[in-house]
Give the backbone structure.
Amino acid sequence: MQRRQFIQLSLLGVAVACSWSSYGNDPEQPQLRFLSSVNDAFGEHFIVAGNAAGEELFRIAVAERCHSGCLHPGAGQAVIMSRRPGVNLYVINMLKGTLDTLVEAGEDFHFYGHGVFSQDGTRFYATANHYPSGAGYIRVYAADENYRHLQDLPVAGMDPHELRLHPDGERLVVALGGIKTHPDYGRIKLNLESMQPALVVMDRHSGAILQRCEPSHHQLSCHHLDISRDGIVIAGYQFEGPQWETPPLIARLDTSTGEFSEIALPGPDQASLGNYTASVAISRHSPVAAITAPRGDCVLLLDYRSAEPLHIVPLADPGGVLAERDGSFIVSSGAGGVYRVEATGSEPQLLVQHALHWDNHLTRA
Amino acid sequence: MPSLSASSLRTLRRAGAAALLTASFCSTVWAQTPRETWHDSLATGYAALADDIATLDQAATTYCNAPSTDARGQLEAAWYEAFDSWQAVRFVDFGPIKQDNLSWQFQFWPDSKNTVARKANQWLGSEQPINIDQLRSDSVAVKGFPALEYLLFDPQAAKSQPLPQERACALLTGISGLLAQNTAQLQQQWQAFRPHYLATEQFQRTTVLAAMHGVETLRNKRLAAPMGLEGKPRRNPYLADAWRSEHSLPGIRASLIGLQHYFLPGLRELMADDQGTELTTRLDQQLTATIKRLESQEADMQQLLADDNGYRSLQLIFIEVDKLNQLLSGNIASELGIIRGFNSSDGD
């Protein structure tokens, strides 16, 4: 597909990509598109746009490794953020396939690589570290005023990583890794003994913490999540404790009842995830959630309603995952492949092989 | 050049003995599995590290109790030897060394912001009592070999609080004591880790990846970066490790000796067919060639970077290390079907 064609499709779609309403049952809606951070074979960094067939639509060269982001509800713009401890927010013109502007985190702050728009598109919420104190914040920007910084909402913890907008449009659900880092020490984790990870539900206006759920082990770093249209959160952990332990890595929070639980896999299946998860995607058309586990070279499929694990699908170095309308999932691999993973757990279908490394996440675009 | 001291040679001899032992096991009918061999080899490596750090800790105490030129010489020699023992096992990036940032506690590096000096100076300049517990709760930058190196070899440290002044000595013995405790913990946990390591198939790949990553770091960060071949195109000795003690190249040599003696035997078990034997033999030969090349240097990184003749010597070292990297991450990894994951090795 050429850029012009992509642009036409973009104009058709009005989606709030990081919330439940991102794609409903509208049969007129165009096919899935995504943005992803990539490294090429020479280690150069890009933001790449692709489609459901895994074809590249455009790429933008960037100076640093980026992570994830969000499509603006108006669909003409998207934000991709630099990876921890990066300080840039890349505002991308989805109509032209170009970089519109760069917004910096501001003195004493760095981003964690994730952000979300409000449903009306006027606000952008980004997870950030105030590194002199180590305190985590949601930095709030006026997306309709050239990303003017408005305020900071404390998350009452460290290392807020991925966040999503609740389907009610009023609450933010934030995964708190609990890990202290400081740019002077690069990516070294400074508080593995005293981490306090959590899954937090926050009022996006007042910043009030409405619920705080703690993982069953203090070294289960809560990093990524998705939320279903009926308000069920599936979150993925990364375990920072001993490699000879294999605690559960998936959390489930029903935001309508406040019920919080963890999903453990039976025996050796748990160990096969490699104590690490990368991305979470919940289908809007079936009760299935997919979680990528790059250190276990597999994708876990589970029934997010019943909390029942369904399948472990082998796939090398999976990172990003997005749910498709037909109930399948698109999964990107660090080894360059884009795959379709069926909810039945059958062997993944390689759609395209690229000579690049797809980074951790696919952002719906 | 202090680098190719008797201490390095002692490390080599001991590692050599360990390798011979391993080899004799391998010739029995009940050959060890690769992971058994790796576990045993690395247990030997960690034991050597524990011995050398105990000697270093003792030398620090002896020197501070009764300072003399001799005691100082012994202390510095003990630092070189313990540092080399650490370099030999530094490629291990799984198991107990991952706990509590232990690896960073041994060696905080790279240190682009000179955090080691800043942290050490804070301790030297304050009134706060210095002991192991206090240090334990402070930054990783002040807990390991680079902080000791700063105290022993950096004229900046000597300007404010030279050894054997009281606070400098308290910091020196505090750090060496902490290192000794950490090494004891590492050694004990490595034994406790054995059943899990042997039972978990994934660790085969993990161990090979650790060696691959070790050589890659050596090539790109420890050699190419100071040579101006990676990152900024400018020669900068301060990007190397152990520049304060002029031990950058001997440190690299010690890492290669470590691979030869603690990684290669297990790899030989893993690649026992004709093709595999050919590859592991070539790896052994390339390690030996690179080690020899390093041993023929008459100066360390900083001096070699200063003129074009020296730089040419570094280029020749780089070529050998590059061949090593090609062999391990190219031919051998491909023969084993091992690919280093992008997301699995450095995700977020």
Residues 166-199 of chain B form the longest helix (34 residues). Chain B is about 75% helix and 0% strand.
